[in-house]
Amino acid sequence: MKIILCLTLLGLCVSSKTFACTITNGFIVQIENKIPDSKVFVHCQSKDDDLGDHWLTFKQEVHWHFCENFLKTTRYRCHFEWNQKEQDLDVFNKDLGLLCFMQDDNNPCNWSTMTDGIYWYNNNTTTWLKRYDWKPKSI
């Protein structure tokens, strides 16, 4: 009986591709381009998932839902390019998970690209905060 219970719990922890998170917290990362008349290149990945290349036009977004792993080491990193500028950053990690957590299964971590940098939405204060400046694109 103990073996069946352990295997069931292990299966719940490993099944991180479902939309209903049972043991760990669920999150939604959303990235939106807020630069008028421009396309922004975005490539995001974790250790296990490569989410591919995306060219976002003005007001277009890319988003994904996931369950945080049991050890809370889930990390998504993205590379952004726009107008001969770029930036690499974590859009989700342990610290951002604490900031985005809102006690439900759809804890939002929202990001926006703007002409002066990349912004993160603070759910608690309902304000956009500039987190990163664009860097000149390396050749």
TrEMBL record:
It is found in: Secreted. It holds the Pfam family Self-incomp_S1. It comes from the Eukaryota. One of its GO terms (biological process) is rejection of self pollen. Residues 1-20 form the signal peptide. One of its GO terms (cellular component) is extracellular region. InterPro entries: Self-incomp_S1. Keywords: Secreted, Self-incompatibility, Signal. Belongs to the plant self-incompatibility (S1) protein family. This is S-protein homolog. It comes from Artemisia annua.
